[in-house]
Amino acid sequence: MSDINIVVEDRAGNTSELVAPTDMGLSLMEFLKACEYDVLATCGGMALCATCCVDVMEGEENLKEMSDDEYAMLDTLPDLLPNSRLACQLQLSPAMNGLKVRLHAMD
């Protein structure tokens, strides 16, 4: 099976369950943008802007370990949560089935 289910909560608190392909090499950021979520992704997925930040509500243990670049970028956010991640750094994979994320609040 190459599709996974991801639950996304937008900034208004609305929740949607989405089916995401894992065989196209997409990041979570690219998938969220394709689903027309309000994700700026100003840097285009280079872990340089943190405008694609999400808070992982469920499934964090199934994600790959955070890179130093991702950690350094997240560390610049004033409202960083322990479960915050950059969606551009999360490659969609079968292990992420059931992932639940909330779009991080933006100022």
Give me the secondary-structure topology:
Elements: E1 3-9, E2 15-21, H1 28-34, E3 53-58, H2 68-74, E4 84-86, E5 99-103
Parallel strand pairs: 1-5
Antiparallel strand pairs: 1-2, 3-4, 3-5
GO molecular function: 2 iron, 2 sulfur cluster binding; electron transfer activity; metal ion binding
InterPro entries: 2Fe-2S_ferredoxin-like_sf (IPR036010), 2Fe-2S_ferredoxin-type (IPR001041), Adrenodoxin-like (IPR001055), Beta-grasp_dom_sf (IPR012675)
Cofactor: [2Fe-2S] cluster
Kindly state the number of beta strands.
5
Fourth-tier CATH superfamily name: Beta-grasp domain
CATH topology: the name is Ubiquitin-like (UB roll)
What's the pLDDT, averaged over the residues? 95
Query: Distance between termini?
Result: 38 Å
Q: Please identify the top-level CATH class.
A: Alpha Beta
Radius of gyration: 13 Å
* Major sheet: 5 strands, mixed
Shape: globular
Tally of structural domains: 1
Broad structural category: alpha+beta
Task: Work out the oligomeric state of the chains in this entry.
Answer: single chain
How many helical stretches? 2
